[in-house]
Design goal:
The structure holds 2 protein chains of 2 kinds.
Chain A: H1 3-18, H2 31-44, E1 48-53, H3 55-71, H4 78-93, H5 97-129, H6 137-146, E2 151-153, E3 157-162, E4 165-170, H7 178-195, H8 199-228, H9 237-243, H10 247-254, E5 263-268, H11 273-294, E6 300-301, E7 305-309, H12 329-332, H13 336-343, E8 347-351, H14 357-360, E9 365-369, H15 377-388, E10 392-396, H16 405-413, E11 419-420, E12 423-427, E13 435-436, E14 453-454, E15 461-462, E16 468-480, E17 499-512, E18 515-520, H17 536-547, E19 549-550, H18 556-577, H19 580-593
Parallel strand pairs in A: 1-5, 7-8, 7-9, 9-10, 10-18
Antiparallel strand pairs in A: 2-3, 3-4, 6-19, 11-15, 12-16, 13-14, 16-17, 17-18
Helix pairs in contact in A: 1-2, 1-5, 1-7, 1-10, 2-5, 3-4, 4-5, 5-7, 7-8, 8-10, 11-18, 11-19
Chain B: H1 4-27, H2 36-56, H3 61-75, H4 85-105, H5 111-132, H6 134-154, E1 160-161, H7 163-166, H8 168-184, H9 190-222, H10 232-238, H11 240-245, H12 265-283, E2 293-297, H13 322-329, E3 333-337, E4 350-354, H14 362-373, E5 377-381, H15 391-398, E6 403-405, E7 408-412, E8 421-423, E9 446-448, E10 453-458, E11 461-465, E12 486-487, E13 490-498, E14 501-506, H16 521-531, H17 537-540, H18 542-558, H19 564-588, E15 599-603, H20 621-629, E16 633-637, H21 642-647, E17 648-654, H22 662-673, E18 677-681, H23 691-696, E19 699-701, E20 726-728, E21 733-740, E22 743-753, E23 756-761, H24 780-790
Helix pairs in contact in B: 1-2, 2-3, 4-5, 4-19, 5-8, 5-19, 6-9, 8-9, 9-10, 12-18, 12-19
The chains are: A alpha/beta, B alpha/beta.
Chain lengths: ~600, ~800
C-alpha cells in the first residue's frame, strides 16, 4: 500500500499546475492525476474487493456527478469524473480484479480531489490575507548559521550571504510550501481515515512529519536561493514538486499500514437512521460552509447619488474634459471619463470642501480617489458615520504609497479593519502587468459581469478575516515600495528576492453596519486612457451598484458559518459511533452529493 | 535465470554503492559547478540516502540499532564543517570501519564495508597524488582532452574537455572502486575487472557524446540556467550499469580481517610513521619572514596611478599605484625602474613584470634568465587575449620555462568564480577559503608543460577564444562557452622552479591592482613572501620526496592490507600528518597586513548590505576609492576581532543585518574611547541589525521616508539616496539637516565618546557606489563631503 502515498503526492502536485496560484494553469499536467491514480491502483491490486451497493444510491451518484461535471467549471469539477468513472466500473467491471482495484482507486482519488477542492476557498481566503511568517526567521537563521551559511534576520526577512552580496528573502507561508502541504495533508488524512487504525496517533505523526519536512525543505531551498540569487525555487511548480518528492517515501517509512488484511468491503446497501444523520450533518456542514462564503446579501437599493472628493486629491482629476486640446500626464491620469461615464447611470457630483456629515447626508456613495492630502479627524469620523448609516464608500488607492495616497487612505480604511499596503504587484512569471480573470464559481457580485481585468501595477490590501474578497489576484508578486526611486517603484522587480508571492487581495469589500465599503488598489485602471478597456466599465458599474445598497441580511454569512461548524462537530461525533466499515462506505457519499450546494 | 528477488537485491546493493560514490564525488566537487555549501548539501543528501539504503538492507539492524542510525544522521552534519576534503574522506573511512566493527560484533557480516573502506582509501591516495604531483595532473588532462576530442569526432561534434568536464576524474575514481572489489575478491577475476573498466570508459564516451543534448534537455525541463558541467551527476548515474553487472562476475568478496597479529604491529607502526611524516611534509610550508628587494618593471600596458582629487569616476582609481606602497608597508624594499639589465637586477630578489607590451631585447631577456637561474624570482602578471600585445613579449620570456599565455580569456561558467577553483598544494594557496580570497577575475589561461606546477586551476571554467578582429574590445571573444573551446581545468596561475630560482605566472593582474588590495591583501602578501624565499634542493623537491616517503609507507602497509585496522591506521596517519602540517602553517604565519598605516576597516562580518562585486548599486568601490584618496588603507573586515579593530583608525559599517553582540559593542566603545571613528550608515528599513548599537549611543532612526534628498534640501549640500531622519537622545552634534518648508530633520549626526566619535548617517546607501562614485558617474559634492569627514574637518 506504499503506492497510496505516491498517489497522494501526485494528486496534490497536480493542483500546482491546474490552478494559476503561482503560474498559469496547464491542462497537460492532468497527467499527474492519472499517475497518482496509477499508484493508488497498484496498492489495491493485492486486495480482494467486495462492493455491495444499492442501485438507487449508485444512480444518484451517476446523475449528480455527471450534472456537476457539466455545471462546475474546470478544474473544480474534476472529482466528478473520477467518481463517475468509479461508479461505472463498480457497476459493469467489478468482476475483473484490475477494474475492482481501479474502481476503489478512482473513489479514493475522487474523494481526495473533492476535499482538496472544498478546501480551496478556505486556502484562497487565508492565503490572500496572510503571507509573512516572520516568527520562523530566528529558527531558520540559527540553523543556517549552524551549518556554516552566513545568515541573519530582521522583522520580515531572512538575510543570507550570497556570493554577489547580501540577499533578503521574506519567509512566507507560500515559500514554506503551505499549499502543497495542505493538499498532501488532506490526501493523507483521507488515506488514514480509510485504511489506518490508531487514527489519532497517525494523524499526530503526519502533522509532525509535515511540519518537520516543511521546515527542513525551506532550509534546503535556501541553499538554492543563495546559489541562484532567485527565489523561483519557492514558486516554480517543477521545483516545488521536486522539493516534496522525498515526502511520500518518508510517509512510507513512518506511516505504515497493517497489510495483513487484504480485503476491502464497501457496504452501500443497508441504510440506517444513523447513516442518514451522518449524511445530513456532513451535507449541512458543506452546504452552510459554502453558503457562508458564497452568499451575498442583495440589500436594499438606494438613490444612486455619488460624490467624488476632489478636496483631498491632486491626482486623477475629474473636471476638465479629455479632448483634442489637452495632452500629457494631467490629461491621461484623469478621471473625467469615469465621472462622465458614471453620470450616465447615476447622479455624480464633485466635492471641493471639507467633508462633513451634512454634505455626506446628501449622497448615497462617496468616492475617495487617490488622496494626496491628509483627512482631518472630523472628516474621518464623518465618513465612518456615513457608512454606519448605510452609505457606500469607494476607496481607490495605488501602488507603493505613491504621493502618500496609501497613508491618507489608511486613515479611513483602518476604521473598517483594512489597510492599503505600500507595495507594488507584478505578474510573478513575467514581471509584467497582471491580468485577472474571475472564476466562474462563487465570485463576488461586483465582478460577476466582468470578463477580465488588466491591472497597471496595483498595491495589495490587508483585510480583516471577515471581509469580502472581490478580486483575489493570483500569480502575483508584491514588492515593497522603494522610497529612493521615482514614484517609489521597486528598482529591480524582475530580480528582487525580497518579495511576497501568490494570492493577494487587489479589491475587497465589507458590509459595515448598514453601509458598505469597497477598496480598490490600482487607480490607473480608471484613468482616461484605460477607462474604456474591457473589464473597467463593468467593474466600476457593478461596484457602484453594490455600494448603492443598504444591508439587509448581512448577518446570514456568519450564521451559515456557525451552522457549518456545528454540523462538522456533529458529523465527527456520529462518525465515531459508526462502524469503520460503514463509515468508510458513507464518508464520500455526502461530500459528493452535497457538492450541489456550490 | 535470476529471480525477481535477486534482481531487487542487486539493484539495492548497486544503489548503496552508487549513493556512496555520489557522496565522494560531491566531496571532490566533481559533480557540477555548485557553490561550496550546495556541494556539501548534496554530499549530505547522498550520504543520508546511502545510510538509509544500507541500514534498511540489514535485517534486524533497524530494530537493534535505531538510536545509532539517528546518531549517524546527526553526525552527517559534519559535512558542513569546514575541513579539507582529505580529512572528510578520512572521517568517512573511519566511520565505515567503525560501523563494520559494530555490525561484526552483532554477528552481521557485510563485505561491502571492506570494499568501501578500501575504495575510500584509494580515493584519498588519488586526491593526495593529484594535488601534489603536477605531472599526474597534466597526464590526466592530456588524456582527457585527446579522449574527448576524438570521441566527440565520432558524432561530428567539436568538443575539448578537461578531466572534470569529461568525467575522467569520475571514471578514475570509479575504476579505483572496482579495483577495491577485485582486490577483495576470491580468485581475483581480472578479466572481469578489465571488462567493467572498459565498460566504464565506454559509458564515459557515451556521456561525452550525449552531454550537450542532455544539457539542452535538462535546461528545458527545469527552465533554469544550467551550465555544461552541471550535468556531470548524470554521468555518475550511468555508472549504475557496471555496478549492476558486478554480481554477474560471480565474484565472492571477502571481508578485511579483524584479528591483528602482534608481530605485525611494528610494520603498522613504521608504516604509520612514514605516512604521517610524508603527509605532514606535504601540507607543511616553510614560513618566509625575510623581506627582500622587489624590482617593479615600470613598462607595460599599465599605470602606477592612485586615486587622487584630480579625477573621479571612470577608471580614476588607477591600476598598480598602491602596490609599491603596500609592499613597503609590509616590510619589503621596493624599486621601480624602466631598465632591466644585470646591474639593475643586482641584489634584487623578485622581479615583477606586468602586462609587458613591448618585446624585450635579447640582452634584457638574458638578464632575466640569468637572474632566475641565480636564484631570483620572476613574477609575471598578464591579462586576457594578449590585449595591447602583451602575449608575445611574455611568451618569449617564459619560453625556457614551459609556460605560455593563451590567446583566450579564462572565464567562469556562471555569474562569477564561486567554488570553481582547484587549489594545488602550494605555499601561496594554503588556507585559502574561497575563490574570492585570490582576487582573480578574468584573464588569460596558461598553457603549461608537465614540469610546471598548476597552482590555481579553474576546474569549472572555460577558455573563451579571443577574437583577433576586435581590438577595441581587447580581443575578447563572445564570453560564451562555444563547442571546441576547452571546458574545465584551465590553469590560471602556474609556477616553474628553475635552477635556483622560480617563476610565478598569473594570467590575470586583478589580484595586484589598487582596489583588490583591500579585499585580498593576505594573498598578495603570501605571494611575495613565497617569492622572496630561498629554498634549498630539499624544499624545492619537497612534494616528490614526501610522495616517495608516502609510497614507502604504503609498501609497508601493503603487506598487511588485509587487516581492517591497517586501513584505520593509514587513514589516521594521513589525517594527523595533514592536520598538524596545516596547524603549524596557520600558527607560524604572522601577517604584517595590520602594520599598514591608517587602516580603515569596511565591515562585512555583520552581513552588511553591501556587495564586493563591482558595478552594483550596493558596491563599495566608491568608498574604497575615497578612503585611498584620503590616504587611508581600506581593508575588508571579514571576521570581527578586537585586535583588528584596535589597529584601525576608522571603522565603517553600512546597513548591517546582524546585530553587534554585547562583547563587540563593549569593544567598539573602547575603540571609540581611545580615538577611533565609527561610521554607521543605516536607514529605517535596515535598522534591525544596528539596533543594539544605536541604543548604546542613544540614537534612533525614524520611520519618515525622505527619499533621495537632493543637495538643495540639506544643510551640507550632499545627495542622499534614501534618507531617514535621526532621533537624538542626549548630546549629539548635527552635521547635516534636512530642510524643506517647515520641516527640519537631522540626517547625519555624531557623538563624542572619549577621544573618538560615533557617526550616524540616516541612509543605508549613502556610502554605496550608487550615491558616491562608480565606473559610470560620480557625485562631486559627496566626494568633497567625505573628504571633509575623513580629514576630520567636520568634527571641528
Amino acid at each position: 500500500m506504499k503506492g497510496l502515498w505516491i498517489g497522494v503526492y501526485f494528486i496534490s502536485a497536480s493542483w500546482l499546475f491546474l490552478l494559476p496560484i503561482f503560474t498559469p494553469g496547464k491542462g497537460i499536467y492532468l497527467i499527474f492525476l492519472l499517475v497518482g491514480l496509477f499508484f493508488i491502483s497498484l496498492s489495491f491490486l493485492k486486495f480482494k474487493i467486495e462492493i455491495n451497493y444499492s442501485p438507487f444510491l449508485m444512480i444518484l451518484f451517476l446523475f449528480t456527478s455527471l450534472t456537476f461535471f457539466v455545471f462546475i467549471p474546470y478544474p473544480f469539477g474534476l472529482h466528478c469524473i473520477f467518481l463517475f468513472t468509479a461508479v461505472i466500473s463498480f457497476l459493469f467491471l467489478k468482476r475483473h480484479k484490475i477494474f475492482s482495484a481501479l474502481s476503489i482507486s478512482l473513489f479514493i482519488a475522487g474523494i481526495i480531489i473533492l476535499i482538496q477542492t472544498l478546501a480551496l476557498p478556505l486556502y484562497f481566503h487565508f492565503a490572500s490575507r496572510y503571507h509573512k511568517a516572520p516568527i520562523l526567521n530566528p529558527f531558520f537563521s540559527f540553523f543556517l548559521n549552524l551549518i556554516g551559511l552566513k545568515s541573519s534576520f530582521d522583522n520580515d526577512s531572512l538575510i543570507l550571504q550570497a556570493s554577489e552580496g547580501i540577499i533578503s528573502i521574506i519567509t512566507t507561508w507560500e515559500s514554506l510550501g503551505l499549499y502543497p502541504i495542505l493538499n498532501i495533508f488532506i490526501g493523507s488524512i483521507v488515506i488514514l481515515i480509510f485504511f489506518s487504525k490508531n487514527l489519532k496517533e497517525k494523524l499526530l505523526n503526519l502533522a509532525v512529519i509535515l511540519i518537520g519536512y516543511g521546515l527542513l525543505r525551506y532550509i534546503i531551498l535556501s541553499f538554492f536561493v543563495i546559489e541562484s540569487s532567485s527565489i523561483s525555487v519557492f514558486w516554480k511548480p517543477h521545483w516545488v514538486i521536486l522539493s516534496f518528492s522525498a515526502f511520500p517515501f518518508i510517509l512510507m517509512k513512518f506511516l505504515k499500514f497493517n497489510e495483513k488484511n487484504y480485503e476491502i468491503t464497501l457496504n452501500l446497501e443497508k441504510f440506517k437512521i444513523i447513516h442518514f444523520l451522518f449524511l445530513s450533518f456532513v451535507s449541512s456542514a458543506v452546504f452552510f460552509f459554502i453558503g457562508s462564503i458564497g452568499y451575498s446579501d442583495p440589500g436594499e437599493k438606494k438613490g444612486g447619488k455619488i460624490m467624488i472628493d476632489e478636496e483631498h486629491s491632486n491626482w486623477e482629476w475629474t473636471e476638465r474634459a479629455y479632448d483634442t486640446e489637452w495632452y500629457g500626464e494631467k490629461s491621461g491620469y484623469n478621471y473625467y471619463c469615469l465621472r462622465d461615464f458614471l453620470n450616465h447611470y447615476f447622479y455624480v457630483e464633485i466635492n471641493k470642501k471639507e467633508i462633513t456629515s451634512e454634505i455626506l447626508n446628501k449622497y448615497d456613495i462617496l468616492i475617495l480617489k487617490t488622496p494626496t492630502k491628509s483627512f482631518s479627524n472630523n472628516e474621518v469620523l464623518a465618513i465612518k458615520e456615513f457608512v454606519e448609516n448605510g452609505g457606500g464608500l469607494f476607496l481607490i488607492g495605488d501602488h507603493t504609497n505613491v504621493f502618500g495616497m496609501g497613508t491618507y487612505l489608511n486613515q479611513i480604511a483602518r476604521m473598517f479593519g483594512f489597510r492599503f499596503r505600500y507595495d507594488a504587484t507584478y505578474d510573478l512569471s513575467t514581471t509584467g502587468f497582471s491580468l485577472f480573470s474571475p472564476k466562474k464559481i462563487l465570485s463576488h457580485p461586483v465582478i460577476n459581469n466582468m470578463p477580465f481585468f488588466l491591472f497597471a501595477t496595483s498595491c495589495t490590501l490587508n483585510a480583516p478575516f471577515f471581509s469580502e474578497n472581490v478580486i483575489i489576484g493570483y500569480g502575483l508578486k508584491a514588492l515593497k515600495a522603494d522610497y529612493s526611486n521615482r514614484n517609489f517603484f521597486p528598482r529591480n522587480p524582475a530580480y528582487s528576492t525580497e518579495m511576497e508571492f501568490g494570492l493577494f487581495l487587489q479589491m475587497a469589500g465589507k458590509k459595515y453596519k448598514k453601509g458598505r465599503v469597497l477598496l480598490f488598489t490600482d487607480s490607473t485602471c480608471f484613468s482616461n486612457f484605460y477607462m474604456f478597456m474591457k473589464g473597467k466599465p463593468e467593474l466600476i458599474l457593478c461596484s457602484m451598484e453594490w455600494l448603492n445598497r443598504k444591508n439587509k441580511y448581512n448577518f446570514l454569512n456568519k450564521i451559515f458559518f456557525m451552522v457549518s461548524l456545528i454540523s462538522i462537530g456533529l458529523s465527527i461525533f456520529i462518525a465515531k459511533k459508526l462502524k469503520r466499515e460503514t463509515f468508510f462506505s458513507y464518508f464520500f457519499a455526502p461530500l459528493f452529493l452535497l457538492h450541489a450546494s456550490e | 535465470m535470476v529471480s525477481l528477488g535477486e534482481v531487487k537485491k542487486i539493484f539495492k546493493e548497486s544503489l548503496i554503492v552508487l549513493s556512496y560514490f555520489l557522496t565522494i564525488n560531491f566531496i571532490f566537487t566533481n559533480a557540477g559547478s555548485w557553490s561550496e555549501k550546495l556541494n556539501e548539501l548534496f554530499a549530505l543528501f547522498s550520504f543520508i540516502v546511502f545510510l538509509i539504503l544500507l541500514f534498511s538492507s540489514l535485517e534486524n539492524f533497524w530494530e537493534k540499532f535505531r538510536p545509532l542510525f539517528f546518531l549517524l544522521i546527526f553526525l552527517a552534519f559534519f559535512f558542513f564543517v569546514k575541513v579539507e576534503r582529505e580529512i572528510r574522506l578520512v572521517v568517512l573511512g573511519i566511520f565505515l570501519i567503525f560501523i563494520d566493527l559494530i555490525l561484526r560484533k552483532g554477528g552481521i557480516h557485510r563485505p561491502l564495508f571492506s570494499i568501501l573502506t578500501i575504495s575510500t582509501t584509494f580515493f584519498l591516495l588519488f586526491t593526495i597524488f593529484i594535488k601534489n604531483l603536477p605531472p599526474l595532473w597534466f597526464f590526466l588532462q592530456y588524456i582527457s582532452q585527446i579522449f574527448s576530442k576524438n570521441v566527440a569526432k565520432i558524432t561530428g561534434q567539436n568538443l575539448l574537455f578537461g578531466a572534470t568536464a569529461s568525467g575522467l576524474y569520475i571514471t578514475t575514481l570509479f575504476i579505483l572502486l572496482l579495483l577495491a572489489y577485485f582486490i577483495l575478491s576470491e580468485g581475483r577475476k581480472w578479466s572481469f575487472f578489465i571488462f567493467l573498466s572498459v565498460l566504464t570508459l565506454f559509458l564515459n564516451s557515451l556521456y561525452i557524446i550525449l552531454s550537450l543534448p542532455i544539457l539542452s534537455l535538462t535546461t528545458k525541463i527545469f527552465k533554469a540556467y544550467i551550465v555544461p558541467t552541471d550535468i556531470s551527476v548524470i554521468y555518475i548515474l550511468f555508472l549504475f550499469l557496471p555496478l549492476f553487472l558486478l554480481p554477474k562476475g560471480k565474484v565472492k568478496v571477502k571481508e578485511l580481517q579483524v584479528e591483528l597479529d602482534k608481530n605485525n604491529f611494528i610494520y603498522l607502526f613504521v608504516g604509520a610513521v612514514f605516512v604521517f611524516l610524508s603527509c605532514f611534509l606535504l601540507n607543511y610550508h616553510l614560513v618566509y619572514d625575510k623581506k627582500e628587494k622587489i624590482f617593479l618593471f615600470e613598462e607595460g600596458y599599465l599605470n602606477w596611478e592612485k586615486p587622487d582629487f584630480e579625477k573621479y569616476g571612470g577608471r580614476s582609481w588607477g591600476m598598480f599605484g598602491m602596490l609599491p606602497e603596500f609592499l613597503e608597508n609590509i616590510g619589503f624594499e621596493v624599486k621601480k625602474d624602466k631598465i632591466i639589465n644585470d646591474k639593475a637586477l643586482e641584489k634584487v630578489k623578485i622581479l615583477v613584470i606586468i602586462n609587458l607590451n613591448k618585446k624585450l631585447s635579447a640582452q634584457e631577456k638574458h638578464s632575466i634568465w640569468n637572474f632566475v637561474k641565480n636564484g631570483g624570482s620572476l613574477l609575471c602578471l598578464g591579462d586576457h587575449t594578449g590585449m595591447q600585445g602583451i602575449r608575445e613579449p611574455f611568451n618569449e620570456i617564459l619560453k625556457p620555462y614551459g609556460i605560455e599565455f593563451n590567446f583566450d580569456c579564462g572565464h567562469y561558467l556562471k555569474k562569477r568564480w564561486s567554488n570553481d577553483f582547484e587549489f594545488m598544494n602550494h605555499p601561496i594557496t594554503f588556507n585559502l577559503c574561497s575563490d574570492e580570497d585570490t582576487g582573480i577575475s578574468v584573464g588569460a589561461s596558461l598553457k603549461t608543460f608537465p614540469s610546471v606546477i598548476p597552482v590555481i586551476i579553474a576546474k569549472y571554467g572555460f577558455s573563451d577564444r579571443g577574437n583577433p578582429n576586435d581590438p577595441r574590445n581587447g580581443y575578447l571573444g563572445d564570453i560564451k562557452y562555444t563547442n571546441g573551446e576547452l571546458l574545465g581545468d584551465i590553469v590560471l596561475v602556474a609556477e616553474k622552479k628553475y635552477k635556483k630560482g622560480k617563476i610565478l605566472v598569473f594570467g590575470d593582474t586583478s589580484s595586484f591592482q589598487n582596489l583588490s588590495l583591500t579585499k585580498n591583501p593576505l594573498f598578495v602578501e603570501r605571494v611575495f613572501r613565497y617569492l622572496s624565499s630561498q629554498s634549498n634542493w630539499i624544499w624545492k623537491n619537497k612534494n616528490y620526496l614526501s610522495i616517495s616517503i608516502f609510497l614507502i609507507g604504503l609498501i609497508i602497509f601493503f603487506s598487511k592490507l588485509r587487516n581492517i585496522f591497517a586501513y584505520g591506521i593509514l587513514l589516521l596517519g594521513i589525517a594527523l600528518g595533514y592536520q598538524i602540517g596545516g596547524f603549524l602553517n596557520k600558527n607560524n604565519y604572522q601577517s604584517n597586513i595590520l602594520s599598514l598605516p591608517k587602516i580603515a576597516l569596511i565591515d562585512i562580518s555583520h552581513l552588511e548590505r553591501i556587495s564586493l562585486e563591482p558595478a552594483l548599486e550596493t558596491g563599495i568601490l566608491g568608498i574604497t576609492t575615497n578612503l585611498i584618496r584620503n590616504r587611508y588603507n581600506p581593508l575588508i573586515l571579514r571576521k570581527f576581532s578586537e585586535k583588528t579593530l584596535f589597529r584601525s583608525k576608522i571603522f565603517i559599517s553600512i546597513a548591517p543585518s546582524k546585530n553587534f553582540t554585547k562583547k563587540e559593542i563593549a569593544g567598539i566603545k573602547e575603540y571609540i574611547r581611545k580615538g577611533g571613528i565609527f561610521i554607521l550608515s543605516v536607514g529605517y528599513g535596515e535598522k534591525e541589525g544596528s539596533k543594539n548599537l544605536l541604543e548604546t549611543f542613544g540614537l534612533e532612526i525614524l520611520n519618515i521616508p525622505l527619499g533621495p534628498v537632493s543637495p538643495n534640501k540639506n544643510s551640507v549640500g550632499v545627495q542622499f539616496y534614501n534618507a531617514y531622519p535621526i532621533n537624538i537622545k542626549g548630546n549629539s552634534r548635527i552635521i547635516c539637516k534636512y530642510k524643506n518648508e517647515d520641516r527640519v530633520y537631522p540626517l547625519i549626526v555624531y557623538k563624542d565618546y572619549g577621544k573618538g566619535k560615533f557617526l550616524l548617517i540616516g541612509d543605508s546607501n549613502f556610502l554605496c557606489d550608487s550615491n558616491l562614485e562608480n565606473i559610470n558617474y560620480y557625485l562631486k559634492e559627496n566626494i568633497s563631503f567625505l573628504k571633509m569627514l575623513l580629514q576630520g574637518e567636520l568634527f571641528k
